[in-house]
Design goal:
10% helix; mainly beta; 72 residues; globular
């Protein structure tokens, strides 16, 4: 299962309501040798891309899972 192959893409939908009915954005991670993250708005407008420190800070604790915090 791990490590995931180069080219893998994982996407998480972001919500700010308790019922998770309305997406407010998305975060994707793409394995391109190292992981590259991208944050978008709900309309898919790109907000940030790269080795984002806010993502790395949490995902570094999941090193034994190829930096994924849940099973894809």
């Amino acid at each position: 299962r791990y490590p995931l192959p180069v080219g893998s893409i994982l996407v998480k939908t972001l919500h700010d309501d308790p019922t998770c009915t309305t997406p407010v954005g998305y975060v994707a991670m793409r394995k391109d040798g190292d992981w590259v993250w991208q944050k978008t708005a709900a309309n898919f407008e790109v907000r940030d891309t790269g080795a984002l420190q806010s993502c790395i800070a949490c995902h570094s604790a999941c090193g034994d899972r190829d930096l994924t915090c849940t099973d894809p």
